[in-house]
């Protein structure tokens, strides 16, 4: 119950009922009764649904109605006055102050009981109104049809009024009270229509001003009256006023209410969605979730946040003018439409429709219409019951073609509105907004509420008629009713019967006879008999006045059950299938699918009951039952079993069998037979199997191996098994840990495996070893005999240690470390600091301090760290464990170098792991912190690997080299460092080459002294100048554009933009150069191209992306046709590239010799065309300040010398 407080003087009961049963506005559902206090300051509203009050209060505790502000709060009562009026007292409203849930549940049960008593009292009072009063000689006109001529005219008039009121109360739904006014044109403001509705010539009653809604697409104005007869009377009047341009007036239908409450359609001349969003936010302060836009450039759908906008009715008037532009506004109809693309000519429309209607495969359903827009696209509209969320969540594929789907709104299509009508509407007079927006909170999903809204109100409207014309069976009736004729005969049933007969039957017999309409037939033949079904006592209760008739029905029912009821058992049903069929939701579903028969599940079998007299196909009925309990057995391997038995797998399996899940299923995992059994209905079985397979595919077991020495293995088993067992019990089945003589294998969920790995490594790190040499005569023989073994055992127990002999230790020899002596490749000097580049093992260099990069786990898992421990010994790691004070990224820990005599100290640097571009900057800060630390310690020489490179830290080679060069440059130029020697060393030639090129690009006057060639024998010679300056004299100035010819590779150029050639598909893995660019720039550039250029590009055009991990800001991807002797296409393309560079405000661009290779352009011709096009561009763009590098491969150095401009 809901209590309404405020000034109710001008508000009628019908107005309150309409307001609070309308879910689209402030209401919560069907209203059962309304009581208004005598002082007109409060009212109590009783709803038919217990959740209605919570639904209303979730939107707010106030509502404005007819100019009055009403306060809302829940109403609780335990007492009722003798006249069936609800007592108004604040002492009864104790609900919010209850201290615990138990009291609230108790009070709720008492309120429900009181509401039931009040409802019975009201029903009794209504029934008493049907009794004929012989003293007054009157019969209430609502109890019996009034026949003309039997009563005076004044009685007939009062009967008409009373009948009208009953009709009004039983038909108060929006669609029955709403009028649809069709107009020739929308040219007036809302006030004009309000004044017209209030005109005495056409006014038929009260209407709700706030209900006026404008539909500019269909040229309709909706208005809701306070009663259905007032709305119908308004429709029957002639509306011939020329100034209103009214074409037709008719009643609204339920389809007119199938609109989104927070979606609005707008059409007009705008500068884009941003202008629209800014205008709405500034003028209405409404939050916008999204603005949809299709191929019609003038049409938009604005989606508001349902928390701030639950009804767009006032906005249909207020948004008719937007920043001086005339707009067409309309509500958005709910339509289940999607746009599908990715089709091919081989996929016919019939095949597509069959696939979409196959719910098991596509998740779709019945197709209402399918329109093929082209060979690749189609628009599909589904029936209302199809859930588009399920359809869009699936991956779709037909004949190896990947299909893509998205929601589609027909009103946004280009041809939805006639262009001429649109232009005419835009020239009409401006609407004058005159309504404010009511901000209310929507507690649920608007679409779901909107679709069920009309149905609920319709059910409420016809409820009174059902009570008058139907007799509901007592007990559980499965929604069935027994007709008892007209109202006069119903009145006869209400009297007290003299005789009562009870027929005892089995429960299944009652249900079966009811499903076969046996009891309906009895009521049709014996209308004077009252028949009720009591499922609790398993009885049929007969009431009447004729004993013989009752006995005949009794005998007939028993005879029907004994002679006509039969059953059959379903064979080969497993215990799990029977258990599944016994579930309430499954049994109800099966029962709804079976006609004229009933399924009963016992503990051991399933029986199908039916009437032999009915024409029933038993095989079809059995097929229906079996289809709802199909079994699928999936073989499993051990890894799959372990995955599903883990805690995450158990949660996943529980979600599938949860009663609240949309899936109804039973799943059993058998570890012995290694099988997974799934029981579900046929329409859900495929979905369950797919979800399990997807889970197993995406959640494979992770495996890690940790190598152990014999001594650590024995120590762990002997002294640390208690700690290990405690830890193992904490992880449960999430990981499996197995030990062998030389390693530990961990398999399980990735996060748990990583946790186990860290735990075991921490334990192993605490176990230390020490070599002891005993030089006593006969000591070896003594320790091997029984007395010596006893001594060793006692020492081990007393000191918690393991004693091994050298022969035992040597059984597990360490893996050999391949040591490659470093080779000096080149060196240079910058501001007095010597920089050397070595290829080989960095651990062999003589240096003051060595930098060892670590990942945040600090587990020494990289190849360099492992080799460092193997060559330098475990003391390095022990020293690190003692000295480490922080595990954060950028922290530096200094340790000894162990047995590495050529290295004085080691700096262990914790580095970030690459995941995005922000980590690149973080890596640069980390390297800078390391050099600061070393400089503060006054070390004179330092050796650096490629910090961040490798499988552990995952940074690209280009970003690593760029970061290190930037840091070194800053240190050298500031002069605040102690370094005299800086060594860069790596095993791979590519790393050294890229590092040297980065130095050349950063330091303009650097000169390398090349000592030897790199080990991979590539043609790589460093000159005294950088590659792009090796021909620095080969350059020209075209007005403000500077052009240089540079020898080198395009991916090494340090300019704002680089250009490469690609094919039409923009797949970078197809070309040699594009693949190199993809490897160095990262996968992000390929994703950008797929998102921006889904269908590729044409020959003579170009695409654009960011630079990724490369030093450039942008990459241009040029596409050329094969050379046919005409250079026009290349000239146009180069001109476009230069124009785009100017638009991006770039200062430099590098262009290679385009089209060489498979496109058959010669290098000299391509370069010559490029420079001539640059010259032409410069003559037309004299203010452009751009530096252009024409990049030629080193092997084409002679060709580069021949390149000359025309002038």
UniProtKB/TrEMBL annotation:
It is found in: Nucleus. It comes from the Eukaryota. InterPro entries: Macro_dom (IPR002589), Macro_dom-like (IPR043472), Mono-ARTD/PARP (IPR052056), Nucleotide-bd_a/b_plait_sf (IPR012677), PAR10_RRM1_2 (IPR034464). Residues 822-1003, 1030-1207 form the Macro domain. Residues 429-443 have a biased composition (Basic and acidic residues). Residues 429-448 are annotated as: Disordered. Its main location: nucleus. GO terms for cellular component: cytoplasm; nucleus. One of its GO terms (biological process) is negative regulation of gene expression. One of its GO terms (molecular function) is transcription corepressor activity. Keywords: Glycosyltransferase, NAD, Nucleus, Transferase. The keyword Glycosyltransferase applies. This is Macro domain-containing protein. The gene is 106074294.
């Amino acid at each position: 119950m809901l209590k309404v407080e405020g000034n109710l003087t001008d508000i009628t009961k019908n107005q309150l009922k309409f307001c609070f049963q309308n879910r689209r506005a402030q209401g919560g559902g069907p209203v059962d009764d309304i009581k208004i206090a005598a002082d007109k300051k409060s009212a109590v509203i009783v709803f038919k649904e217990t959740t209605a009050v919570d639904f209303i209060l979730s939107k707010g505790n106030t509502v404005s109605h007819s100019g009055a502000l009403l306060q809302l709060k829940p109403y609780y009562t335990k007492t009722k006055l003798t006249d069936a009026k609800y007592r108004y007292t604040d002492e009864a409203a104790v609900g919010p102050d209850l201290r615990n849930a138990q009291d609230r549940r108790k009070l709720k049960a008492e309120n429900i009981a009181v509401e039931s008593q009040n409802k019975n009292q009201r029903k009794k009072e209504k029934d008493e109104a049907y009794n004929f009063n012989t003293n007054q000689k009157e019969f209430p006109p609502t109890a019996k049809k009034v026949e003309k001529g039997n009563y005076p005219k004044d009685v007939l008039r009062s009967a008409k009024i009373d009948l009208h009121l009953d009709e009004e109360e039983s038909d108060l739904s929006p669609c029955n009270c709403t009028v649809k006014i069709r107009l020739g044109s929308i040219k007036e403001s809302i006030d004009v229509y309000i004044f017209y509705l209030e005109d005495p010539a056409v006014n038929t009653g009260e209407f709700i001003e706030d209900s006026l809604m404008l539909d500019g697409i269909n040229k309709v104005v909706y208005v809701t009256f306070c009663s259905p007869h007032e709305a119908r009377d308004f429709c029957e009047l002639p509306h011939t006023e020329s100034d209103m341009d009214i074409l037709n007036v008719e009643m609204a239908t339920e389809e007119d209410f199938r609109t989104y409450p927070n979606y609005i359609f707008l059409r007009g001349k705008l500068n884009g969605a941003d202008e629209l969003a800014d205008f709405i936010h500034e003028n209405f302060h409404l939050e916008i979730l999204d603005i949809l836009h299709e191929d019609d450039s003038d049409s938009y759908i604005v989606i508001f946040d349902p928390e701030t906008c639950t009804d767009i009715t006032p906005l249909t008037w207020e948004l008719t003018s937007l920043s001086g532009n005339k707009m067409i506004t309309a509500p958005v109809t709910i339509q289940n439409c999607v746009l599908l693309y990715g089709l091919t000519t081989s996929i016919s429309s019939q095949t597509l429709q069959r696939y979409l209607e196959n719910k098991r495969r596509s998740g779709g359903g019945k197709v209402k219409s399918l329109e093929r827009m082209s060979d690749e696209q189609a628009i599909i509209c589904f029936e209302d019951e199809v859930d588009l969320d399920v359809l869009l969540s699936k991956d779709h594929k037909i004949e190896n073609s990947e299909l893509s789907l998205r929601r589609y709104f027909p009103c946004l299509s280009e041809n939805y509105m006639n262009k001429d009508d649109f232009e005419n509407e835009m020239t009409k007079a401006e609407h004058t907004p005159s309504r404010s927006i009511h901000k209310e909170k929507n507690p649920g999903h608007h679409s779901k509420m909107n679709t069920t809204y009309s149905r609920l109100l319709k059910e409420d409207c016809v409820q009174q008629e059902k009570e008058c014309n139907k007799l509901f069976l007592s007990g559980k009736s499965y929604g069935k009713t027994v007709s008892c004729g007209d109202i006069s005969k119903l009145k006869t049933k209400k009297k007290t019967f003299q005789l009562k007969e009870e027929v005892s039957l089995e429960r299944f017999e009652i249900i079966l006879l009811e499903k076969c309409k046996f009891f309906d037939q009895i009521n049709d033949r014996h209308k004077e008999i009252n028949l009720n079904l009591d499922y609790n006592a398993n009885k049929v209760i007969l009431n009447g006045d004729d004993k013989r008739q009752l006995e005949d029905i009794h005998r007939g029912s028993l005879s029907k059950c004994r002679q006509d009821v039969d059953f059959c058992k379903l064979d080969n049903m497993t215990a799990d299938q029977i258990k599944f069929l016994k579930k309430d939701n499954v049994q109800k579903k099966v029962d709804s699918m079976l006609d004229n028969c009933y399924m009963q599940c016992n503990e051991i079998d399933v029986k199908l009951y039916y009437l032999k007299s009915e024409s029933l196909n038993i095989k079809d009925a059995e097929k229906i039952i079996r289809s709802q309990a199909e079994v699928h057995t999936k073989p499993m391997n051990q890894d799959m079993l372990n995955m599903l038995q883990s805690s995450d797998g158990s949660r996943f399996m529980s979600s599938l069998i949860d009663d609240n899940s949309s899936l109804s299923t039973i799943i059993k995992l058998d570890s012995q037979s290694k099988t997974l059994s799934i029981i579900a209905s046929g329409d859900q079985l495929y979905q369950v199997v797919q979800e399990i397979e997807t889970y197993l595919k995406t959640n494979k077991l992770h495996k890690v191996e940790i190598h152990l020495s014999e001594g650590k293995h024995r120590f762990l088993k002997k002294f640390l098994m208690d700690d290990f067992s405690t830890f193992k019990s904490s992880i449960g089945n999430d990981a499996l840990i197995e030990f062998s003589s030389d390693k530990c294998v961990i398999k399980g969920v990735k996060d748990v495996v990583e946790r186990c790995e860290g735990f075991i490594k921490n334990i192993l790190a605490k176990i230390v070893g020490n070599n002891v040499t005993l030089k006593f005569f006969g000591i070896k023989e003594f320790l091997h005999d029984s007395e010596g073994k006893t001594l060793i055992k006692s020492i081990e127990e007393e000191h918690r240690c393991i004693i091994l002999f050298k022969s035992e230790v040597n059984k597990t020899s360490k893996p050999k470390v391949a040591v490659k002596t470093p080779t000096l490749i080149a060196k240079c000097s910058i501001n007095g600091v010597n920089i050397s580049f070595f290829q080989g093992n960095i651990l062999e260099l003589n240096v003051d301090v060595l930098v060892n990069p670590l990942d945040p786990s600090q587990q020494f898992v990289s190849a360099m760290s492992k080799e460092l421990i193997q060559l330098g010994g475990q003391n390095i790691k022990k020293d690190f464990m003692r000295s480490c004070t922080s595990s954060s990224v950028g922290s530096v820990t200094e340790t000894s170098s162990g047995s590495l005599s050529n290295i004085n100290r080691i700096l262990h640097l914790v580095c970030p792991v690459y995941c995005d571009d922000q980590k690149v900057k973080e890596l640069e800060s980390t390297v800078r912190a390391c050099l600061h630390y070393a400089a503060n310690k006054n070390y004179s020489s330092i050796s650096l690997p490629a910090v961040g490179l490798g499988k552990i830290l995952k940074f690209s080679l280009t970003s690593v080299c760029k970061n290190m060069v930037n840091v070194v440059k800053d240190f050298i130029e500031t002069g605040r460092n102690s370094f005299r020697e800086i060594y860069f060393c790596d095993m791979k030639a590519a790393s050294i080459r890229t590092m040297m090129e980065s130095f050349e690009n950063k330091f303009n006057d650097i000169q390398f002294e090349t000592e030897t060639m790199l080990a991979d024998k590539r043609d790589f010679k460093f000159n005294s100048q950088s590659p792009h300056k090796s021909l620095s004299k080969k350059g020209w100035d075209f007005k403000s554009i500077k052009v240089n010819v540079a020898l080198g590779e395009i991916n090494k150029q340090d300019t704002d933009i680089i250009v490469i050639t690609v094919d039409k598909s923009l797949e970078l893995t197809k070309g040699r150069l594009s693949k190199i660019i993809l490897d160095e720039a990262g996968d992000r550039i390929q994703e950008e191209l797929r998102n921006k250029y889904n269908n590729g590009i044409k020959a003579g055009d170009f695409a654009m992306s960011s630079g990724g991990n490369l030093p450039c800001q942008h990459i241009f991807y040029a596409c050329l046709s094969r050379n046919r002797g005409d250079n026009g296409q290349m000239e146009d393309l180069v001109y476009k590239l230069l124009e785009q560079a100017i638009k991006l405000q770039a200062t430099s661009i590098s262009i290679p010799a385009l089209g060489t290779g498979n496109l058959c352009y010669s290098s000299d011709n391509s370069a010559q065309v490029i420079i001539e096009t640059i010259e032409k561009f410069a003559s037309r763009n004299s203010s452009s300040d751009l530096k252009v590098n024409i990049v030629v491969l080193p092997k084409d150095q002679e060709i580069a010398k021949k390149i000359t401009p025309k002038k």
